[in-house]
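It is worth pausing here to work through a concrete case rather than discussing structure prediction in the abstract. The textbook approach is simple: state the sequence, then state the predicted structure, then interpret. We follow exactly that order.
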Amino acid sequence: MPRNMDLTALRAFVAVADAGGVTKASGFLNLTQSAVSMQIKRLEDMLDVSLFDRSTRRLMLTASGEQMLGYARKMLALNDEVLTRLTAPAYEGELRLGVPHDIVYPAIPRVLHRFASAYPRMKVTLISSYTARLKRMFDRGDVDATLTTEDTVGPSGETLLERRLVWVGAENGQMWKQRPLRLAFEHACIFRGAAQAALDAHGVPWEMAVESDSIRTVEASVSADLAVHTSIEGTEPPYVEQIAHGGALPDLPIIKINLYHSGLVRGEPFADLLEFTRAAYRGL
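Step two, the predicted structure:
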C-alpha cells in the first residue's frame, strides 16, 4: 500500500543531520529536543531503517541515512518552492543586515538561505564589519538591523546568545605553547583589549604578531599556526579550533550577541528576517 512521507519528520531529519545533533537542531526548528527525537523515530519506524548511528558521541548518518538525506533535501526544496511560488505574496525590495564578521559562521548562511527561500524576489544586503562601526551605521539608519558582540546590551537591543570568549588556533596547532604568545587581531577588534588584559593578569607574556584591517588575514595567519586569536564559543571560523590549553591560558569574559532593529521598517519580510536570525543564533 502506498504511504506518504511526513515532511515535518523529513525537515527534522535534515536539521539534525546538518546540525550534528538533536540539541542544535531543536533550537533551529524552535521545537523541544523530545519533539525532534520523536520526529526522527517516526521517520525511522515508517522506513524500517536506522538513519543515525547512535553508538558514537556525535550522531553519524548510517548508509541508509546518507541515502535518505539526499532524497529529503530534494523533497523539502520542492515543497518549499511550490509554497513560495503559489502562495507567497510577491514581495520585492531590499533589507540591510549588519553582522560582525567574527560571528558570520555558522548562523548567517542559514539565515540567508531560509530568507531567500521564503522571499525569492527580495534582496538582503549583508554589511560585515566590527561592532562599533555597525552600531554607528545603525544609528544613522544605514542598516535596518544589526547584530553586535558586546559585554552589555543597549536599551533598544535584545540578547540572542551569551557565550564565553575562547582561544582559537590552528587545527592541532602548537603556537599557543610559545612564549611570548603571538597574537593576531584586527586593529578595531572589540576582543583585543580583553584578551591582552587577561594575559597580563595571568602573567603570560605576549606580542602582536599580526595586525590587520582584514579578518581574512587574521584567520589565514591563525590557521597557518603563526599566531592565536579569540572567538565566541560556537562561532569559530573554518580551519581553526578551540585551544585545549588546560589552564595554560587565562579564561576570557562572557560575550553577548545582541540584535538591534529599526522600528521604522515594517512588514512580514523584515519580521521574518529578524525571526530567522533569532532562531539561528539561539540554535547554536
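Step three, interpretation. The mean pLDDT is 90. The CA atoms of residues 133 and 188 lie 9 Å apart.
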